[in-house]
Specification:
With about 400 residues, the chain is of the alpha+beta class. Helix content is about 30%, strand content about 20%. It is elongated. The structure holds adenosine-5'-triphosphate and magnesium ion. It comes from Discina gigas.
Length: about 400
């Protein structure tokens, strides 16, 4: 299959006309029960609000004349080097796994922008979830990690590396039971025939080989899947503790050091403490686990994080191997303190509605980690898919 696979792209392209703040699509539906061969359906969508923005555009909530909601990513194509076909191609390739990836509803374009229509995931992204509910209980963290690994196994088997795994690109399909989906294939690239030296992930989640921190140069394409595994290790650390590993410490005016918890929610992403990361990559210090331990994370979970946060990409666990890790397949130990967990459950209920009821069995409770004073040791209703209409 070619990198672009234009025939597949064309199949997902929506027949479109533009109005003032609206867009109209013509689709064709076959109704077997009514013995209707090919009915022409016209749907007009109106912009409602912005759901988020990133490096190349905005994501807008749209509502159809029938009330249906969807999210549309609008990417400016006037800028040089924007190859939007890659993002759409990846979405077509994973469209059969709507349990793991945000559901793709088609795309359309005008002279300045390309628009990617997706199901609207009302609960937002994992950054928002962590901000509201705090670090996850062990079994929720396990669930999120397992689902992300299933997504990465699927992507990597297709020779696709995501290349921007981070909480903002993980959407919460359901807070309870927890169900997450991987989104944003903007910097995904097919692994074969690519170089690592194109762009690269987000601050805080970038693998050391992309930052030039390893003595050996990793130019080979085979390493880009390992980049996803490092990023996943950072995400797992964050969902367990509230903080990325190797986080740069903020200096307070009074000279104390403090993590700037949650600053990424305002748009800024956490920055990496390059010095500590470099020292780890050079083998001078171990992976700092003090924050994981202070958060009362189990030894199995710590061992899992250590399998991913390995400086040498050759030795970093691949997705399939990580999916079989003891922590992922085991039951977490029973919780020891229910008051903190109850606080967390109440926060989830306040945020996502009173009907949500996080399960409390098998939950490992940790101390809240906000705010922390740490000096590193060791120096959004689903639309119908275009495929439904075909
Ligand atoms: N389907 C969706 N439903 C609800 N919210 C969404 C959806 N897709 C994206 N969002 C929100 O919009 C934000 C930005 O979306 P996305 O990550 O796809 O774009 P981006 O970061 O601008 O992409 P790029 O990295 O290519 O610049 C997400 O972090 C999320 O909060
Ligand atoms: Mg994004």
């Amino acid at each position: 299959m070619s990198d672009r696979d234009d025939s597949k792209l064309d199949r997902f392209k929506l027949e479109t006309s533009f109005g003032d703040g609206t867009v109209t699509h013509i689709t064709y539906k076959t109704d077997m029960a009514a013995r209707e061969r090919r009915a022409r359906v016209q749907t007009t969508w109106t912009d409602k609000k912005n759901l988020g923005s990133g490096g190349f555009g905005v994501v807008i909530l749209q509502q159809a004349d029938g009330g249906e909601l969807r999210a549309v990513k609008k990417i400016y194509t006037g800028a040089a080097n924007i190859d939007f076909t890659r993002e759409i191609t990846v979405m077509t390739k994973v469209a059969h796994r709507q349990d793991l990836f945000v559901k793709f509803l088609g795309w359309y374009t005008n002279s300045d922008f390309v628009f990617i229509a997706m199901e609207y995931i009302e609960h937002g992204d994992l950054t928002h979830y962590l901000k509201n509910s705090g670090p996850c209980s062990a079994n929720i963290a396990q669930g999120i990690t397992r689902q992300l690994l299933e997504g990465l196994v699927t992507l990597h088997e297709l020779d696709i590396a995501h290349r921007d795994i981070k909480p903002q690109n993980v959407l919460i399909a359901s807070p309870e039971p927890i169900w997450v989906k991987i989104a944003d294939f903007g910097v995904s690239k097919r692994t074969k025939g690519t170089m690592l030296h194109t762009r690269l992930g987000s601050q805080g989640y970038v693998a050391p080989e992309l930052m030039g921190l390893l003595s050996r140069r990793y130019m080979d394409d085979n390493y880009s899947q390992a980049v996803d595994m490092w990023a996943l290790g950072c995400v797992v650390h964050e969902i367990l503790t509230g903080e990325i590993p190797f986080r740069e410490v903020e200096y307070e005016p009074d000279g104390t050091t403090e993590f700037d918890f949650g600053s990424e929610v305002g748009g800024m992403e956490p920055r990496t403490d390059i010095g500590t990361l470099k020292s780890f990559c050079d083998g001078k210090t171990d992976l700092p686990t003090d924050l994981l331990r202070r958060s009362l994370v189990s030894e199995l979970a710590i061992a899992f994080v250590k399998e991913l946060l390995v400086a040498d990409p050759d030795s970093r666990a691949a997705a399939k191997k990580a999916l079989a890790s003891v922590w992922i397949v085991s039951e977490e130990e029973p919780r020891t303190n229910i008051s903190i967990e109850d606080t967390r459950i109440n926060k989830i209920k306040q945020t996502f509605g009173a009907n949500t009821s996080p399960t409390s069995h098998g939950v490992n409770i940790r101390q809240p980690v906000k705010p922390l004073v740490v000096v590193p040791t060791g120096q959004k209703e689903t639309g119908s898919s275009v495929t439904d209409a075909m």
